[in-house]
């Protein structure tokens, strides 16, 4: 069987949904599972709505109406002679409105409420695509991924219980996949108690990998707005080159360092079962894209990853003790406790430097803790450039007009923390 995943950009409007349906229709409908994300920027809008709801702000209603209107517009453009087919979407509107009409449960952690509301994006988009496919004569079956993907209760970053999940997935889908295309949501899961969870922002690629792993899929294809994996993000670079074949190792390294074209958790389950991952363009579905698998050759050209808005924090023990096991375990423990991911680290005898995404709220809680033992210096507004399979020429090229603050080289990867002088 095969797994397809369509991201938000592919279903951002009615034309997008028609295009996705066209790609699905080209396939054998049997043994095809389709994972779909929320439409366009819906998840961002639902996040705004959630914060407003939790604070009981007056704009809750208008924020929700905007989201509802965007979905209604897509339905209006898609509905043919039988608009009743979109009834399940209106039922979801009713569910959301029922939640919003009540005050937030004071006993529920905010992250749990976040998952409950934000997950509606995927429920809505999959209901719309499913209805449209059925209306246009293709038998498809809508499945609630929350019933299949079991996670712990780490809301907003649910950890998958693989044994339970694979059992539910195979029990539910094995026969269904023999009869019709199955449509389901990316990004969502639920706890043993039946509370909705999400897998972390941009987690729908990961959902596709979870289904593929459990179903021993022959392949996964993630359909994107780019021709495949490129050697840099085309949003920042003019002259990008498409990579035809990529090893799992290079793919996981690129994703880990921030190449947002693939969610970093996607590769492991696929590599573990040697399932190839295709990255293809939903705008040019006839083109082959990139295939990620077990290949001999490594990346043919240097690949770049830019992370903007980085903060460099340097810690100096007040008592002049070495940066050794004791200090390091204390530092890592505190970063983990406040949920701050370290993008780069480097130490000398009595200083330890890290580069992190600028997250003012979390850092404001972490820094006072660290200040008990360390003197802290702090540098904001930086860029972190990672080059996989670098050479000196490419390093010189990216450093033009930049001040270099930290450089770290391993055999295949260089990371540069820079300040833009432009
Ligand atoms: P979706 O949410 O629709 O699944 P994303 O927007 O998350 O897709 O991923 C596609 C985007 O990833 C592209 O539009 C591109 O800007 C960005 N991107 C970052 N790095 C790369 C890269 N190395 N190759 C291709 N695209 C990249
Ligand atoms: N809709 C979710 C998000 O925007 C998941 C995804 O798109 O992969 O984060
Ligand atoms: Mg995405």
UniProtKB/TrEMBL annotation:
From which domain of life does this come? Bacteria
| Entry keyword annotation includes NADP | no
Pathway per the UniProt entry: Amino-acid biosynthesis; L-lysine biosynthesis via DAP pathway; (S)-tetrahydrodipicolinate from L-aspartate: step 1/4; Amino-acid biosynthesis; L-threonine biosynthesis; L-threonine from L-aspartate: step 1/5; Amino-acid biosynthesis; L-methionine biosynthesis via de novo pathway; L-homoserine from L-aspartate: step 1/3
Q: What class of enzyme is it?
A: transferase
| Assigned EC number | 2.7.2.4
One Pfam family per UniProt? AA_kinase
Q: In Gene Ontology terms, what is one molecular function of this protein? A: aspartate kinase activity
Q: Which family does it belong to?
A: Belongs to the aspartokinase family.
User: This chain belongs to which protein, by name?
Assistant: Aspartokinase
The taxonomy runs: Bacteria, Pseudomonadati, Bacteroidota, Cytophagia, Cytophagales
């Amino acid at each position: 069987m095969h797994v397809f995943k369509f991201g938000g950009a592919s279903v951002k409007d009615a034309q997008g949904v028609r295009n996705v349906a066209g790609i699905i229709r080209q396939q054998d409908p049997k043994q095809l599972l389709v994972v779909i994300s929320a439409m366009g920027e819906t998840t961002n809008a639902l996040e705004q709505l959630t914060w407003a709801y939790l604070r009981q702000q007056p704009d809750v209603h208008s924020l929700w109406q905007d989201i509802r209107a965007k979905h209604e517009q897509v339905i209006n453009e898609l509905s043919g002679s039988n608009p009743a087919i979109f009834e399940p979407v209106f039922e979801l509107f009713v569910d959301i409105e029922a939640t919003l009409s009540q005050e937030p449960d004071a006993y529920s952690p905010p992250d749990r409420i976040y998952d409950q509301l934000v997950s509606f994006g995927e429920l809505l988009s999959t209901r719309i695509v499913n209805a449209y496919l059925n209306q246009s004569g293709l038998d498809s079956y809508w499945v609630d991924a929350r019933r299949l993907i079991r996670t712990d209760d780490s809301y907003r970053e649910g950890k998958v219980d693989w044994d339970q999940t694979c059992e539910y997935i195979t029990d539910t889908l094995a026969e269904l996949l023999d009869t019709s295309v199955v449509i389901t949501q990316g990004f969502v899961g639920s706890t043993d108690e039946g509370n909705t969870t999400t897998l972390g922002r941009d987690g729908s690629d990961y959902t596709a990998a979870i289904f593929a792993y459990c179903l021993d899929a022959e392949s996964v294809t993630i359909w994107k707005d780019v021709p495949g994996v490129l050697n840099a993000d085309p949003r920042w670079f003019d002259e990008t080159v498409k990579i035809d074949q990529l090893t799992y190792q290079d793919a996981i390294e690129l994703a880990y360092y921030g190449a947002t074209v693939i969610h970093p958790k996607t590769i492991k389950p696929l590599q573990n079962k040697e399932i190839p991952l295709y990255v293809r363009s939903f705008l040019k579905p006839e083109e082959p894209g990139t295939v990620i698998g077990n290949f001999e050759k490594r990346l043919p050209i240097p690949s770049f990853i830019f992370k903007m808005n980085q903060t460099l924090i340097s810690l100096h023990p007040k008592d002049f003790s070495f940066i050794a096991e004791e200090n390091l375990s204390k530092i890592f423990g505190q970063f983990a406790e406040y949920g701050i991911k370290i993008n780069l680290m480097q130490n000398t005898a009595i200083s330890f430097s890290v580069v992190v995404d600028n997250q003012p709220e979390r850092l404001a809680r972490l820094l006072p803790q660290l200040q008990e033992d360390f003197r802290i210096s702090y540098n904001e507004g930086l860029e972190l450039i990672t080059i996989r399979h670098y050479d000196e020429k490419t390093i010189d090229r990216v450093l033009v007009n930049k001040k270099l603050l930290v450089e770290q080289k391993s055999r295949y990867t260089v990371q540069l923390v820079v300040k833009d002088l432009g």
